[in-house]
Fold:
Amino acid sequence: MPNVAVLDMTGKNVGTIELSDAVFGIEPNAVVLHAAVVNYLANQRQGTQSALTRTEVSGGGKKPWRQKGTGHARQGSTRAPQWTHGGVAHAPKPRDYSYSLNKKVRRLALKSALSDKVLNNSLIVLDELALDSYKTKTVADCLKAIGAGKKTLIVLADNNAFAVKSCANIAGVKTAQVNTINTYDVLHADTLVLVKSAVATIEEVYA
Structure:
């Protein structure tokens, strides 16, 4: 089982924690990780792109010139795609890009992402993120003290409004709860910071 140091908000080592092999110690599956990331990005697409086809633009009801004898190429409408102000060929229309992955695949992808962070020493366990008010500077100092990267994902055990709001003003820092973490956010972050109380919940859910 992988052992990770537990740090406090000043960066001091206050102990170690033994992580579950079933969640943090598996061999990362690159194929599943790729599938999960593509799925996440596809589900983020709004699908609202739209353009007008030749049947939807105005004008073009009359044949611009006779079929033969003019020296011009034959044309049937001034609203065909090759004309200025003509319609768009194969125009994009609003559509839903979202699709779902099997539950087992999603779980394996997240466990692979968490294990990858452990393998690359990019996972930090924080004893607690204790805030009694909105203090962006306190969180910024804490992240600097524990050596967090430029892009950091902080996983909280519960909805700590002070922590969420305090992190919101720091560029590159994102917060999530145990029930909202996803593979893309974990992989996208340079450093994954888990509050100690969140580790037990993750292991309970995914082990």
Q: What stands out?
A: The longest strand covers residues 13-18.
